[in-house]
Design a protein that fits this description.
Layout: H1 6-11, E1 13-18, E2 21-26, H2 53-60, H3 65-68, H4 82-86, H5 93-111, H6 122-127, H7 132-144, H8 149-166, H9 173-182
Antiparallel strand pairs: 1-2
Helix pairs in contact: 5-8, 7-9, 8-9
Length: 188
């Protein structure tokens, strides 16, 4: 069932085949999903987790590589400590909103048509300016992790967004490293 999301995530369309013909309907959407780290839900860091490595691998294998390639962010979230919960508040929503709005304005100025970096064409991805260290980092991980072409392009799009959020005009080592970290499937 999850695999049915692959085409709509990639193309922004749903195709419905009937006897009378094929209909294509627009369906741009933002997918937000959550998953437990293992069948028991605790994760290997928890001393109460008794899941065998094979069971964890089988459980995590339910999300295919082809579907994971189409998901921009894969972030592992652990339970906060009591100190973290009772600590100082984080950045305000208003401050985050300002940064996001400024990043969207940068994207609009660069891409036009109200599109964001996630909607860049392959040609636009290739035009993104990467500093030499960022390019080398991406190339190294592309070969070491055996990334697909789709994962490569999604990483560049994400790195461009990280750069826009920080106000950088080109993708540097820091932005690329952060994008690669946010796409690490082996941490989820």
């Amino acid at each position: 069932m999850l695999e049915a999301l692959r085409a709509p995530l990639e193309t922004g369309e749903v195709s419905i085949a009937r006897v009378s013909g094929l209909r294509r309907l627009p369906c741009r959407f933002m997918l937000v999903a959550a998953s437990n780290p293992c069948p028991c839900g605790r994760g290997e860091e928890d001393p109460d987790c008794t899941c065998l490595a094979a069971a964890v691998q089988r459980y995590q294998g339910k999300l295919s590589g082809a579907l994971a390639d189409r998901i921009d962010l894969l972030v592992a979230v652990s339970q906060p400590s009591a100190e973290e919960i009772g600590g100082a508040p984080g950045e305000s929503s208003a401050a985050v909103r300002e940064r996001v709005c400024a990043a969207r304005e940068r994207q609009e100025a660069r891409l036009g048509d109200g599109r964001c970096n996630a909607e860049m064409t392959t040609a636009e991805v290739r035009e993104c300016e990467l500093d030499p260290v960022a390019a080398a980092l991406l190339a190294d991980l592309y070969s070491r992790r055996r990334l697909s072409g789709r994962a490569h392009d999604r990483t560049v799009r994400l790195a461009r967004t990280v750069a826009d959020l920080s106000g950088a005009t080109r993708i540097g080592e820091v932005e690329m490293a952060q994008a690669l970290q946010l796409r690490r499937r082996d941490r989820v």
